[in-house]
Design goal:
549 residues, elongated, transmembrane, membrane
């Protein structure tokens, strides 16, 4: 109890002592200090409020920027998706457009061809030529006898004269050449229409090819587009000729393909053998800084050699010899004092391996032919096998077969039409290719002389079909049915077929001109033939028609 009372009294005394009224002088400055503190607190409060507003503004700006970035990202993503969709539709539209354009060109422009079986194919070739009729047998026979048959004797005499002179000229050429450094020239061979007996249009021109080989110890290594390496489409039908030493591996040593160090030596080839001065290869008629035979260099060498040879033997002949065409380096012309002249082509060629296929240095160009890729690319000619095939098939045909007559008549009609309307993409070689295909497809008895009219129609139909499809395949390349008796190289039989009308796909202007010329030839066929035909009584003609019916 006393302790509790003491605690209460101590608490009351402490409260009284600490009351503020007991110390008025010590606390007299409190009101003034309080106003300053309040003022500072207000200033601090204002600064904090401004800082808060600034921070809120920065946060709002950051949020707006973030939203803008997110929106931009969404727009970009949508743009990418839209672009992908647009590119896809654009590509699809282009493909559809190209397909429509190809269909329009290949089918709509060619809808003149009559593919129906109800039309009379004996008198009508295409839908646009329902009024075109063929000359009958009597008119064709009269035309052939008067206009074409009489030229056979002239061709035989001309061939004999040209071959004799060419042999003498080449013998003189060998005598003026350096046997140790110049190319070795072999005997010439006759090819083409003059030697296949179907040339009809004058002037008659003999085509002679002259194989040549390099001097020892060099040899030619030939490579064609079907040898295994990939060739562009415009180089199909061509090949290259590499000049190598006879003891050099065909595939070449690795030292020719790899840079050896200065302290390394090839154990197979000495430095003398592997290092060939560029001047030496140029002397071998190669393209500059290469080992590939240059067709232009070969033709320059051949022209110089022929000129030297003629200067040696010109005193023996009573005529002049000159090069006749600038764009045909092998074209020669014999000019007699009487004013008459004889033209012939003497063209150097390189034999492909051990066959009768030849790389030809210069080939007559047409408006359809594409430009030669380069002077190191040589065109392959199968003219020797074509002549042999015609001779082989002729032995199985009836006497006086009409196959040569058909080709002669068609060649005459086309040549006559081109003289009226200008040249076209068709050449005599295309016409001969058509005949070769039909000779292989038709039975032997179908070429009897009395079937001249029918076979001529077949050739025109086949040619029309090829023009419509823009496809005329080379007869030998890719043809597995070539008679084994010809000994034709198997590498060309197994090759992909070569389309001779491929340039028509690329050159629409020439294709249109060629088709128009073909149409005009059909329209003018009767008039062209009747112009050179002896008058035949109408009664006789009607009698022949009745017999044929």
């Amino acid at each position: 109890m006393p302790v509790g009372l003491f605690r209460v009294c101590l608490l009351v005394i402490t409260a009284i002592v600490n009351h503020p009224l007991f110390f008025p002088k010590e606390n007299g400055t409190i009101p003034e200090n309080t106003e300053e503190i309040i003022q500072k607190m207000k200033e601090r409060e204002e600064s904090l409020r401004l800082e808060q507003l600034r921070l809120e503004q920065e946060i709002a700006d950051q949020e707006a920027t973030q939203k803008a970035l997110e929106k931009a990202a969404v727009v970009v993503e949508e743009g990418k998706e839209e672009k992908v969709r647009w590119d896809m539709w654009t590509a699809l539209s282009m493909v559809i457009f190209l397909l429509i354009e190809l269909w329009r060109q290949d089918f709509q422009e060619g809808n003149w061809q009559d593919i129906g079986g109800e039309e009379d194919d004996m008198a009508v070739l295409g839908k646009a030529f329902k009024g075109v009729a063929f000359p009958d047998k009597a008119v064709l026979s009269s035309f052939y006898e008067k206009r074409i048959l009489g030229t056979t004797g002239d061709m035989a005499r001309m061939r004999e004269m040209v071959e004799g002179f060419a042999d003498d000229l080449l013998e003189a050429l060998r005598s003026v050449c350096n046997r140790d450094a110049d190319m070795e020239v072999e005997d010439c061979m006759g090819v083409g229409s003059m030697y296949e007996n179907w040339r009809v249009r004058k002037p008659f021109v003999c085509d002679l090819i002259v194989p040549f080989a390099p001097p020892e110890p060099y040899c030619f290594r030939c490579q064609t587009w079907c040898s295994g390496d990939s060739f562009p489409p415009d180089e199909q039908g061509y090949g290259t000729i590499k000049v190598c030493r006879a003891d050099e591996d065909a595939t070449g040593c690795i030292c020719d393909k790899t840079k050896l160090g200065e302290d390394m030596l090839c154990l197979l080839h000495s430095q003398v053998n592997t290092t060939r001065p560029s001047s030496e290869m140029e002397d071998l008629l190669c393209f500059k800084n290469t080992q590939y035979l240059d067709a232009d260099q070969v033709m320059k060498w051949f022209q110089i050699a022929v000129t030297k040879a003629w200067n040696r033997i010109s005193h023996k002949y009573e005529f002049d010899l000159s090069f006749s065409l600038l764009d045909s380096p092998g074209a020669l012309k014999i000019k007699f004092k009487s004013g008459k002249s004889i033209a012939f082509n003497l063209t150097p060629v390189v034999q492909y391996e051990n066959s009768d296929v030849y790389f030809i240095s210069h080939f007559p160009r047409s408006s359809l032919a594409a430009d030669i890729p380069s002077s190191t690319h040589w065109f392959l000619t199968f003219a020797v096998y074509e002549r042999r095939f015609i001779q082989l098939v002729s032995k199985t045909l009836p006497a006086n077969a009409c196959h040569v007559s058909c080709l002669q008549i068609l060649s005459f009609l086309h040549g006559k039409q081109c003289s009226l309307t200008g040249p076209s993409g068709l050449t005599n070689y295309h016409l001969k290719t058509v005949l070769l295909h039909l000779l292989q497809a038709c039975p032997s008895q179908d070429w009897a002389p009395e079937k001249l009219e029918t076979r001529l129609q077949d050739m025109l139909k086949f040619l029309e079909k090829c023009l419509h499809e823009k496809k005329l395949y080379h007869f030998f390349i890719g043809n597995g049915k070539v008679p084994a008796e010809l000994g034709f190289p198997i590498i060309f039989q197994r090759a992909e077929p070569l389309n001779l009308f491929r340039p028509f796909v690329l050159r629409r202007d020439i294709y249109r001109k060629t088709v128009d010329t073909f149409h005009e030839m059909l329209r003018n066929m009767s008039a062209l033939i009747n112009e050179y035909t002896v008058h035949i009584p109408l009664a006789h003609t009607n009698g022949i028609r009745k017999e044929s019916l």
